[in-house]
Design brief:
Largest sheet: 2 strands, antiparallel
Strand content: under 5%
Structural class: mainly alpha
Strand order of the largest sheet: 1-2
Distance between the termini: 61 Å
Number of domains: 1
Helix content: over 70%
CATH class: Mainly Alpha
Number of helices: 4
Number of strands: 2
Order of helices and strands: HHEEHH
Radius of gyration: 28 Å
Shape: elongated
């Protein structure tokens, strides 16, 4: 069982996933800092000095933090855009796979042969 586990961990996919999670966490922290410290103050200047994270309303004891939700949406869009750009760049760098020529006759050719054989009977 230990050898199977060792073989599982040694495969590149598990290690790549672990590295991706760590880098993703660090990148999320960077984007959070960008949104909280640069983008939200800029939006606050444009809309008149409103602290974006404190925008919300209360009904009874429940507080609905719309500003915090909008911050999360902004962070998600930035992260999704960067991941899209990275994936697009990686796809361009990867060598294109050449389509292999068909090994044998196509289905259409086989059907024509069967039809000819049936007509010959």
């Amino acid at each position: 069982m230990f050898n199977e586990f060792k073989a599982f961990i040694a495969r590149g996919n598990v290690l790549d996933l672990a590295v991706g999670v760590v880098i993703g966490s660090a990148f999320t922290a960077i984007v959070s800092g960008l949104v909280d410290n640069l983008i939200n103050p800029l939006i606050g200047l444009i809309i008149g000095g409103v602290d974006f994270s404190s925008v919300g309303f209360a009904i009874g004891d429940a507080y609905f933090g719309i500003g915090n939700f909008l911050n999360a949406v902004i962070k998600f869009v930035i992260i999704a855009w960067v991941v899209f750009l990275i994936a697009k760049g990686v796809n361009k760098m990867m060598p294109k796979k050449e389509e292999a020529a068909p090994a044998g006759p196509s289905d259409n050719d086989l059907l024509k042969e069967i039809l000819a054989a049936l007509k010959a009977k």
